[in-house]
Design goal:
The complex is a heterodimer of chains A (about 210) and B (about 270). In chain A, helix 1 runs antiparallel to helix 2, helix 3 packs antiparallel against helix 4 and helix 3 packs across helix 9. Chain A is an alpha/beta fold and about 210 residues long. Chain A starts with a helix and ends with a helix. The model of chain A has no long low-confidence stretch (mean pLDDT about 95). Chain A is elongated and about 55 Å long. Helices cover about 55% and strands about 10% of the residues of chain A. Chain A contains nine helices and five strands; from the N terminus they run ααααβαβαβαβαβα. Chain B folds into two domains: about 80 residues; about 140 residues, Dihydropteroate synthase-like (TIM Barrel), CATH 3.20.20. Helices cover about 45% and strands about 15% of the residues of chain B. Chain B has an eight-stranded parallel β-sheet with strand order 7-6-5-4-3-2-1-8. In chain B, helix 3 runs parallel beside helix 4 and helix 8 runs parallel beside helix 9. Classes of the chains: A alpha/beta (about 210), B alpha/beta (about 270).
């Protein structure tokens, strides 16, 4: 298991050379690709998310870790048997209608993917019908709504209302985020959760499915 | 001269939101007077945060702010109806914040602006989202200037916002903004450039250090306005010092005055 700790550490510190060396070494020693993925890499990104949430790590460092994660996953993918890359869950994500901002939403997508979620990113300026269509097509357990503008907060409420009225809400959690919103707003519009940054969003997504 | 658009009267800020909800005129008046004393050129007023109350809040804020200062105001709303009401309340030509190329927003804003005596902040945003490179920013700026000139605006009344994006998510976001400002200021001669400076440091620690140095580097490329907090004494010191270094402070008089007033300290 010490190999996997070294992988986790290299991932957290964004040390790409050490990470690829350690991943190859672990494979040579017979550790399975799926163990490296789940107990080394995904575990590492979980820690990265926590440190981002607590303010110990900053966005560029998180992006560096995610970049390392992507490279390591490329090495592992051909070695994973079908179905072995088990998914933490499916998420449909987008910035609501009228709002064209995507930086925060992209960070959340990146963190969710890094901890094992399959994410369908609908982009920006997404109306409620497009969310509904994607929910029907991808059958996610979670829908994520983002907004940066105070002027698009009402659109977030409308989107939640429409999703709630036209889907089986027991099987679908809605999480929201973005500069103008908070937990109180999430409660008010009937969303299941609010996250203030990408790190807490990945933690929230996992918690919502438990 | 550098145009400082004081950003503090905005209901997304907790204290302003509370003061507005409680109709605490003394708080608003005090803040505006501090911004004026610190060197603001315009006082931005945004009442958008309390959903469903923008019209009442804007009306009340303007009634307080215009009595508190001799400075012109920057009316900050995406809603032309609110802007129409606000425009009717001010005593001197305001700045309007803002127009963009987003279709739902552009046509009503042009309709509102036609024939008005005001200055305008024009965002380099269109329906495809945030600009991706310098050419993207410049072509949007050019379209905005052509459209605004088409309804009678003078270049001196147009403030182009190139949309500053965080350096934490893409290393080239700093140079993209600086290169765009230079291109706009040379190829669209006569317009101004402005923007929310602090966007550059989103996601980084010690943001104020980043903001200050970025302001200085942007000014070297022609940036001549910012939407900023004039009560941030360090950034105001950087502003005055950069103005002097750029040769725009005759005999260094404003720099020396600021030093003697204790507002520039090494």
């Amino acid at each position: 298991m010490s190999d996997l700790n070294a992988i986790t550490e290299a991932l957290i510190s964004g040390d790409l050379d050490t990470l690829t060396t350690q991943v190859k070494a672990a494979l040579d020693q017979g550790t399975s690709a799926s163990d490296i993925l789940s107990q080394g890499l995904i575990k590492g990104m979980g820690i990265v998310g926590e440190r981002m949430e607590s303010g110990a790590m900053f966005i560029p460092e998180v992006l560096m870790s995610a970049h390392c994660m992507g490279t390591a996953v490329e090495i592992l993918t051909p070695l994973l048997a079908a179905g072995e890359a088990s998914s933490a869950g499916r998420v449909v994500m987008g910035t609501v209608k009228g709002d064209l901002h995507d930086i925060g939403k992209n960070l959340v997508v990146m963190m969710l993917e890094s901890v094992g979620f399959e994410v369908t990113d609908l982009g920006v300026d997404v109306d409620a019908d497009t969310f509904l269509k994607a929910i029907e097509e991808h059958k996610p357990q979670i829908v994520g709504l983002s907004a940066l503008l105070t002027t698009t907060m009402p659109m977030m409420r409308e989107t939640v209302n429409k999703i709630s009225s036209q889907t089986d809400r027991k099987a679908l959690k809605i999480m929201i985020g973005g500069a103008p919103v908070d937990q109180a707003f999430a409660d008010e519009i009937g969303a299941d959760g609010y996250a203030s940054d990408a790190g807490s969003a990945s933690k929230l997504a996992k918690a919502l499915l438990n | 001269m550098f145009t400082v658009i004081g950003e503090r009267i905005n209901t997304t800020l907790k204290k302003v939101k509370a003061a507005t909800a409680e109709r605490d005129a003394a708080y608003i008046r005090g803040d505006v007077q501090k911004q004026q004393a610190a060197g603001a050129t315009y006082i931005d007023v945004n009442a958008g945060a309390r959903i469903g109350h923008e019209e009442d809040d804007m009306q009340w804020l303007l009634s307080v702010v215009k009595e508190a200062t001799r400075l012109p105001l920057c009316l900050d709303s995406p809603d032309p109806a609110i802007l129409e009401m606000a425009y009717g309340m001010v005593d001197q030509p305001p700045m309007i914040n803002s127009i963009s190329l987003e279709k739902d927003r552009f046509d009503p804003m042009i309709h509102f602006l036609k024939g008005k005596e005001c200055r305008i902040i024009a965002l380099c945003m269109d329906d495809s989202g945030m600009p991706k490179d310098v050419d993207d920013i410049f072509s949007r700026a050019k379209t905005l200037v052509e459209e605004l000139e088409g309804i009678g605006f003078k270049r001196n009344d147009i403030f182009i916002d190139p949309l500053i994006q965080p350096i934490s998510v893409a290393a080239e976001n700093g140079t993209m903004a600086m290169d765009a400002v230079e291109k706009i200021m040379t190829e669209l001669k006569g317009v101004h450039t402005t923007g929310g400076l602090s966007n550059i440091s989103y996601g980084l620690p010690q943001r104020k250090v980043v903001n200050r140095i970025f302001l200085s580097m942007m000014m070297a490329r022609g940036f001549d306005s910012a939407i900023m907090d004039p009560l941030d004494t360090e950034i105001m010191a950087v502003l005055k010092t950069s103005t002097m270094i750029l040769g725009q402070d005759n005999f260094c008089m404003n720099y020396l005055k600021a030093v003697r007033a204790g507002s520039i300290i090494a």
